[in-house]
Amino acid sequence: MFTDEEIAYMKSQPLARIATVDAEGQPDVVPVGFEFDGTHIIVGGYAPEKTRRHYNVLAGNPKVALVVDDLVSVQPWAPRFLRVYGTAEAVQQPGEGAYLRITPEISWSWNLSGQPFGHAGSDVAGPRRTVH
């Protein structure tokens, strides 16, 4: 499960980046809007059934990586992120349209509190890894 801090971070961010792989092994990464429903990460958008990510999943490549990240500050430098490896399923719901439903398998989060990094006296721990 995601921690309360990780869930709050996901809910505070409007964009993520999702990576999929096509049948020839070519990786593809794109920015996407997303939602977390308490169990799955939902990626929809405008006509998602016509996107490369949707085609890649339907072609039998369900493994995905998703990154939510931002910079709290550039001066001082304060990046933070949540990375998720998971399995995507292409879903078509009447009245809701198409979307990818991602089941998280492993996640890493780092510096979600937004502490400055790399400066004297900074105390930012390494990433937190979770097997879901």
Give a nutshell description of this structure.
With 132 residues, the chain is mainly β.
Quickly list its features.
mainly beta; eight-stranded antiparallel beta sheet; 8 strands
Detailed description of the structure:
The chain is mostly beta strands. It has two helices and eight strands. Strands 1, 2, 3, 4, 5, 6, 7 and 8 form an eight-stranded antiparallel sheet that branches. It is elongated and about 50 Å long. The N and C termini lie close together (6 Å). The model has no long low-confidence stretch (mean pLDDT 93).
Note the beta-strand portion: over 45%
Q: Got a strand count? A: 8
| Overall radius of gyration | 16 Å
Give the distance, in angstroms, between the N- and C-terminal Cα atoms: 6 Å
How would the blueprint of this fold be written?
Layout (H helix, E strand, L loop, with lengths): L3 H9 L3 E6 L5 E6 L2 E2 L4 E3 L8 H7 L4 E12 L2 E17 L3 E14 L17 E4 L1
Antiparallel strand pairs: 1-2, 1-5, 3-4, 4-7, 5-6, 6-7, 7-8
